[in-house]
Amino acid sequence: MDYRGRFAPSPTGLLHFGSLVAALGSWLRARHAGGCWLVRMEDIDPPREVPGSADAILAALPAFGLVTDEPVLHQSQRLAAYDAAFARLRAIDAVFPCWCSRSELAAGAGLHRDGRCVAPPDPQREPAWRLRAPDAAIAFDDAVQGSQQQNLREAAGDFVIRRVEGLYSYQLACVVDDAHQGVTEVVRGCDLLDSTPRQIHLQRLLDLPTPRYLHLPLALDSMGHKLSKSAQAWPVDPDHPLPALRRALTLLGQPVPPDAADAPALLAAALSRFDPALIPKRSGCFAG
Ligand code: GLU
C-alpha cells in the first residue's frame, strides 16, 4: 500500500519547536517511504483555539519547506462524519451518557459501574458521552518506542467521546480522519503514545483500519517539561527557518547537513541522509 503520513496540529498557538519536530519527523518518514505527506488542522475545540493561529501555522509550514501534498483537511468541516461515527457507537451500545460533574469525578471513580453512569440523569443538562473501556490489554508495535501494551480500563477508564458542550473528543475525530485520509502510518510526538490504545480500540469498534505508529521523542525545556504551544513556548521563526530545522534534525538523531542555501535545500540533504533507526526513544532537551 502506498505510504500516507500526516501532520495534525491544533490551533492553540503559533508553530513552536515541538510541533516543528513532529512536522519534520512525519515529513521525512513520508518522503523517505516515497509517499504522501498531508496536513490536517485539528480545529474542533473552539474554547482552546487561539484566533489566527490556524492560519499562522499553515503559513509557517511552507517557510520551513514543509508543503502538503493535498488540500488541508479542517476538522471543523468534518462534524457530519463525527456525528455518523458517534451514531454508530450508540447503535452498538459502546457509549453511555454521563451526568457526573467534575467535582463528583474528582471525588472518586465509583460513579461508573458496569459501564454505566450512576449519577441520576438530569433532563436540564446535556450529558457527556463516554466510551466503555474494556478490561483488556491493547497492544501495538511502535516503530521507535517498541512494543506497547495498555489495559484500557485501568489506564484510561470510560473515556469521553463527546463533551457536555456537544464537542467531539480528539480521540474520536483523530480516528475518523486518519481513516478518511487513508493514513498508513501516524508519526507524532510521544506525548500521544498513551492515546494510541484508545484510538486502536475505537478503530476496532468502527471497523476502521489501524495504521502503523511511530512516536517521536519530545523537545523538553531545561526543566524537563514538554514545550507546549499553549504556554507559548519557543515559537519558531518562519523568516529564519534553518536554525530551527537544524535543531529539529538533531533532536531526531539525524545527521545535520553542513550547509544549505535555504529550507528546501536543507530538507533535501537531510532526506538523503535520513535513517529512522537513528531516531532516539528518549525525549531530549531543547537548548533554546
Ligand atoms: N493535534 C494534536 C496536537 O497538536 C496532534 C494529534 C495527532 O498527531 O494525532 O498535539
Which key features would you list for this structure?
288 residues; 14 strands; Rossmann fold; 3-stranded antiparallel sheet; binds glutamic acid; Glutamyl-tRNA Synthetase, domain 3; 2 domains
What would your notes on this structure say?
By secondary structure, the chain is of the alpha/beta class. The protein folds into two domains: 4-79 and 181-285, HUPs (Rossmann fold, 3-Layer(aba) Sandwich); 80-162, Glutamyl-tRNA Synthetase, domain 3 (Alpha-Beta Complex), CATH 3.90.800. The chain is 32% helix and 18% strand. The chain has nine helices and 14 strands. It has helices at residues 17-32, 53-63, 79-91, 102-107, 152-155, 170-180, 196-205, 241-251, 263-273; strands at residues 4-7, 36-41, 73-74, 95-98, 112-113, 116-117, 128-131, 137-142, 146-151, 160-162, 185-189, 212-216, 219-220, 284-285. The strands form six sheets. The chain has a three-stranded parallel sheet. Helix 1 (17-32) crosses helix 8 and helix 6 (170-180) crosses helix 7 (196-205). The relative contact order is 0.18. The chain binds glutamic acid. Glutamic acid binds next to loops.
